[in-house]
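Quick one, C-alpha cells below. Sequence please?
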C-alpha cells in the first residue's frame, strides 16, 4: 500500500485504526493471564460447569490466591464469568479457548508447548531490535526451534498436520499449474510429512520423488498409507548440508521465510549444486506484498523471533537465488501461492 496523505483529514492512509485504545494495545497483563489459564487447562475444567478458584487451584496444582487474582482479571476483560457463589465460567469469548476455530489457535497460547514457548520468545524483542541478528527463540531457551520441536513428538506431529492442512487445500492446483511430470524426479527439500510430494505423484504418474527432512518418519508413513512407496521415499537429512544430486527438480516449499538471508543462500545453493546445469529449483510460496507495507506483519515478526527469518517478496527471493547462480525461468500462480521455477543461470 502506498503511503499518501488523505486531504480531508490530513491523516496518512497507512494509518490503520484497530478500534482499541493505546492502553489495550500495549497491555501485557491480559495476554499473560490468558496464556496461564490455557496452560493450566482452565477453559476445559470449567466448560462443563463453573468451578471456584479453590477447586481449580487444587485441580491444577496452583496457588489458590494467585489463581483467583488471575481469574478475576479474566472476568474483568470479558473472558470469564463469576457467579455469586464464586464459580468461574466461560463467556462466549472465553469459549474460543477450547478449540481452534480459526479466531485464535490455543496452541500458540499453551506455554507448555513449543508453539507457546515460541510466542513467549517475544520477550527478547528488545535484544533482537538492538542486535538485528539474535534469534529470540534460541536466546531465550538455549536451543533452536527445530531442535526443540524434534524433542516433542506430539508438537512435531501437530506442526506437520498444520502444514499439511494448508498444503492439502492447494496441492491439486499446484500439481496442475506446472509440468512436474517433465522433471522425471523431484526432491522435496524440507518436505515435511510428504503431503505435497504425494499430491504431485498422484497427479503425475510417471514422476518419482524423495522428501528430505529432519525426520523421515512422517513422510514415510504418508507414502505408505497412500500406496506410493514404489515411487516415493523419505530421507532424514538437512538442507543445510549437500542434497542428493541428479533429480530433475528440487522443490523448496514454504522454507525460505524460516531462515535468514545467508541460510537461504546456503539452501538454494545446495539445491542448485544438486540440480546441476540441467535440473530445476522450484520455490513454492506465498510471497509478501511488494508495496512496502507488511500485509502480514504478525507472521513476519514470528519468523524473526522463532527462526531469525522473514516474510520475503518475490523480488527478495529472486535476488537471493541470483546470488547462488539461479535465474527465474517462469512464474505461475497456484491458488494464492506462486511457483517460481529457477535454473542455473549458465544452463538452459
Ligand atoms: C514451514 S515447514 C514446510 C513444510 C513443507 N515444505 C510445506 O510446504 O508444507 C518447514 C519444514 O522444514 C523442515 N526443516 C527445518 N529445518 C530443516 C533442516 N535443517 N533440514 C531439512 N528440513 C528442515 C521442518 O521439519 C519442516 O518440515
Amino acid at each position: 500500500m502506498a503511503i499518501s496523505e488523505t486531504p480531508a483529514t490530513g491523516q496518512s492512509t497507512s494509518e490503520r485504526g484497530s478500534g482499541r485504545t493505546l492502553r489495550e494495545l500495549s497491555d501485557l497483563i491480559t495476554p499473560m493471564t490468558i496464556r496461564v489459564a490455557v496452560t493450566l487447562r482452565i477453559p476445559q475444567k470449567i466448560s462443563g460447569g463453573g468451578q471456584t478458584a479453590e477447586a481449580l487451584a487444587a485441580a491444577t496444582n496452583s496457588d489458590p490466591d494467585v489463581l483467583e487474582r488471575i481469574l478475576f482479571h479474566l472476568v474483568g476483560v470479558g473472558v470469564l464469568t463469576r457467579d455469586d457463589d464464586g464459580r468461574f465460567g466461560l463467556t462466549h469469548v472465553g469459549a474460543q479457548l477450547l478449540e481452534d476455530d480459526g479466531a485464535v489457535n490455543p496452541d500458540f497460547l499453551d506455554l507448555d508447548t513449543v508453539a507457546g514457548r515460541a510466542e513467549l520468545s517475544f520477550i527478547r524483542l528488545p535484544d533482537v531490535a538492538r542486535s538485528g541478528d539474535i534469534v529470540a527463540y534460541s536466546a531465550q531457551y538455549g536451543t533452536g526451534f527445530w531442535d526443540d520441536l524434534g524433542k516433542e513428538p506430539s508438537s512435531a506431529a501437530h506442526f506437520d498436520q498444520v502444514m499439511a492442512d494448508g498444503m492439502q487445500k492447494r496441492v491439486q492446483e499446484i500439481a496442475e499449474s506446472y509440468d512436474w511430470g517433465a522433471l522425471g524426479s523431484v526432491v522435496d527439500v524440507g518436505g515435511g510429512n510428504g503431503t505435497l510430494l504425494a499430491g504431485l505423484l498422484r497427479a503425475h504418474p510417471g514422476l518419482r520423488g524423495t522428501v528430505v527432512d529432519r525426520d523421515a518418519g512422517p513422510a514415510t508413513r504418508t507414502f505408505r498409507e497412500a500406496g506410493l512407496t514404489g515411487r516415493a521415499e523419505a530421507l532424514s537429512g538437512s538442507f543445510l548440508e549437500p542434497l542428493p544430486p541428479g533429480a530433475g527438480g528440487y522443490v523448496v516449499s514454504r522454507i525460505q521465510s524460516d531462515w535468514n538471508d545467508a541460510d537461504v543462500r546456503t539452501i538454494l545453493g545446495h539445491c542448485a549444486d544438486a540440480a546441476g546445469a540441467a535440473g530445476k529449483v522450484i520455490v513454492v510460496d506465498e510471497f509478501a506484498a511488494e508495496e512496502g507495507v507488511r500485509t502480514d506483519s504478525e507472521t513476519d515478526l514470528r519468523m524473526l523471533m522463532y527462526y531469525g527469518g522473514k516474510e520475503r517478496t518475490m523480488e527478495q527471493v529472486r535476488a537471493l537465488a541470483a546470488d547462488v547462480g539461479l535465474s527465474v525461468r517462469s512464474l505461475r500462480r497456484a491458488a494464492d501461492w506462486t511457483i517460481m521455477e529457477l535454473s542455473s543461470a549458465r544452463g538452459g
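The radius of gyration is 23 Å. The first strand starts at residue 51 and ends at 52.
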